[in-house]
Amino acid sequence: MPALLLIKNRRWPFFFTLFVATCLLAASAFAAPLKIGVHDKPPFAMKAEDGSWTGLAVEIWEIVARNAGLSYEFIEVPYEQIRPGIVDGKLDAAVGEISVSADDEKTMDFTQPYLISTIGIAVQPHTWTITWIDSIKEFLNWTVAKFLFGTFVAMLLVSLLIWVIERRHDSGHFKGGIHGIGSALWFAAVTMTTVGYGDKTPSTLLGRFVAICWMFVGVIFVSAFTATVASSMSVDRINNSIYRIPDFRHLDCAVLKGSTAEKIATRLGINYTSYESLEEALRCLSEKKIRIVVADKISLTYLQRKMAKEKPPAEFEIPDLKIRSSFLAIPVRNHHPDFEAINNCLLNLTGSPEWDAILSRWIDTELATF
Q1: Domain of 73: which CATH number?
Q2: What is the DSSP letter of 222?
Q3: Do 287 and 334 share a domain, yes or no?
Q4: Most CB within 10 Å of its CB: which of 190, 294, 309, 313?
Q5: How many C-alpha atoms does 12 have within 13 Å on its Cβ side?
């Protein structure tokens, strides 16, 4: 009977609409908060001792979520599990140093990129002891060894020839057996290097002719030896250089597990070790357990300043090398109902006057474009 009276009442559409709106508001009030994956990777996301999160990506998300009216909770997951968690639906979205890729775009949605970061490297600091050790290693190589062996054989042949010609001469500079050959070898060495002490000299016409020929050959040998050593050291320095991408293949590299740098290392065929934490990898680099760390320059620069203040300090260098650029964005589960709201709020934030202030609080803006 009350339902019949409500139907006969002309205002029943108003009450019905009010009822539906009330139910929707109640449902939204009791809706589960979004699950946002996060991983400790300075300066994008950093976990405090009390369990709270700070960082560039965290602050961006907090502003976006507040403007979109979204409730959420951070869920700490390993870096390599962020993307699978979004694909499987365990996570609604994620924040951190997460780049856009064509493969990931097939399984999840990405917001408009908010930052362009450069993938670079960190290397061991070059102290004077390391420089000298590297120089010695560069000198002691097979190319130089072959040249030295050939030069010694030539000197030995010339000294034997001089000894055969001069051993019977009255001057006595090259008389005797082993002693005479040794004197001839000494003469060949000082003549080749253009030192010419004059303590041992040939006296016969043929001996002097051989000596003159050896002088010219010696100049050529010394010049060729200098050029060979310089060329060998330059080539070896290039081959052992960590300032060119192709040279990474023969080095022990470290990357963050599941990161863009790991994908690059895999694609280039680089021998690498995956670490759960970038700070752990950089400490191993500082302790000379590895030769190079591949990561985004923003994180490397931030951690370089932070870890230099530790006791003992962890020191490393960041060469001016750009491997590639990556576009950082917020990954969201496919067909998520809040995706448009998240994306629109992010676009509004990056175009607002406060955007530059947010970036400058966390990073060196010269390392990124936006």
Answers
A1: 3.40.190.10
A2: H
A3: no
A4: 294
A5: 9
Number of domains in the chain: 3
Task: Quote the DSSP letter at residue 40.
Answer: -
Residue 56 domain flag: yes
Integer CA distances (angstroms), 49 to 13, 52, 54, 281, 363, in order = 54, 7, 11, 22, 22
Name the 3-class secondary structure at 275: strand
Is the Cβ–Cβ distance between 52 and 13 less than 8 Å? no
**Residues of the chain above pLDDT 90, percent:** 32
Q: Which of 221, 239, 257 is the last residue in one of the domains?
A: 239
Shared domain check, 333 and 320: no
Dihedral sign (CA 146, 152, 154, 156): negative
For residue 140, give both structure tokens: 């002691």
Contact yes or no for 122/318 (Cβ under 8 A): yes
Using the Cα atoms of residue 246, residue 250, residue 251 and residue 256 in order, give the sign of their dihedral: positive
In this structure, are residues 120 and 322 in contact, taking their beta carbons and an 8 Å threshold? yes
Give the H/E segment covering residue 282: helix 278-286
The dihedral sign for the CA sequence 283, 286, 288, 294: positive
Domain ranges, residue 210: 141-239
Tell me, yes or no, whether 203 and 231 share the same domain: yes
SS3 85: helix
pLDDT tens digits along 244-291? 565 566 677 899 988 888 888 888 777 888 998 899 999 998 888 888
Query: Looking at the DSSP assignment, which residues form a beta bridge with residue 317?
Result: 123
